[in-house]
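Record 1 of the preview.
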Amino acid sequence: MATTASTAASTSLASLASVTLEVADLEAARRFYSAFGVDTYIDLRASEAHSTGFRGFTLALTVSGPATVDGFVGAAVDAGATVLKPAAKSLWGYGGVVQAPDGTIWKIATSAKKDTGPATREIDEVVLLIGVEDVKATKQFYVGRGMTVAKSFGGKYAEFAPGQSSPVKLALYKRRALAKDLGVPADGTGSHRIVLGSTAGACTDADGFVWETAASLAPTLS
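->
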């Protein structure tokens, strides 16, 4: 059964303040994310860090209906993305998975199985799902740094309360389960090619996800 954390929390608690993708071609990435329609949710910076296979995370967009899912998938493909999972109905709704030219995997989904209105370019929610080996242990690591758990499903999934400065929520999922859901092999080495901005200082978690003090991150998309 899911549990929900108490809302009584100090305003000084840590939270996800920004999401920065590290890309090899900064100008190309700027063009892609602008065309895709998610450029206001992420920052970009140049990096040549070695990375192979699954990078251990995905960014998931929740939208209003199937037609809007199709619109975002189409915009991504037109801008150069590769389809990993074609948009289709599932037990939970409707969704698809694409991989950006820089390697970042994006999932676009809705809980609605039928459209109740025309397609839009509106995004209801963006969630950064990081794949970890031990959800409970990583959850406790972040709780120890002051983050507030909003939802928790045992050792399978945990979601943290969003910060005021970032439109992106942070959630934890088992790495192999996440890879399976995205339709990719779970193996991967090298850099995750993502840096998370923290309101509580720098750290690196057990799965190698790097956090930097938000003020030290220089956004290149604005």
